[in-house]
Amino acid sequence: MRAASLVLLVALAIAAGAGAGAASAAGGQVAHHEIIAGSRGANLPGERLRDVGRVLRSRGEATRVLGKWGLDRAAVKGVDFSRHSLIVVLANYRPSAGYRARVASVVVRGRETVVTADVRFEAAGKLVAQDLERPWVVVAVKRAAVARVNPEVRVRTRGAAPAR
Q1: pTM
Q2: In Å, what is the CA distance from 29 to each residue of 5, 83, 115, 129?
Q3: Looking at the 3D structure of the chain, how many domains does it have?
Q4: Which domain holds residue 109?
Q5: φ, ψ dihedrals at 145, nearest 5°
Q6: Where are any strands of DSSP class E within 50-143?
């Protein structure tokens, strides 16, 4: 059975400079492209067991946060942080492997940024590990489009978990 959940990250964007303020004031859909996605099974000490998201505005910050969250840091090497920021979405644990996170949209409305990510079970009919997994995704956006994101997360689940 195909399971899907919609992760809605509603975040307050703090304008940091005229470019970010202009983008926030204009509002609307923000172009983004996926850098890397995956899932991890490790439960890290002190981590929040909920959906989280964050904007990363420098190579050092991205390397530090991705490392702290146990995510792949290799993709950071190809990002020009003078022109782009990264948005990382780390979904809450799912009951098995086979889930994938994808950012569906990034929308700026005034000072609020809404990042919508779909988390879907994509391994229907395949043998998957029966352990807790945390899907994640990293996307790039133009630096001026989103300054800072301190997310408030809401999750809607659609469908059911795969049969065991």
Answers
A1: 0.75
A2: 22, 18, 10, 37
A3: 1
A4: 3-159
A5: -70, -40
A6: 52-56, 84-90, 99-109, 112-121, 134-142
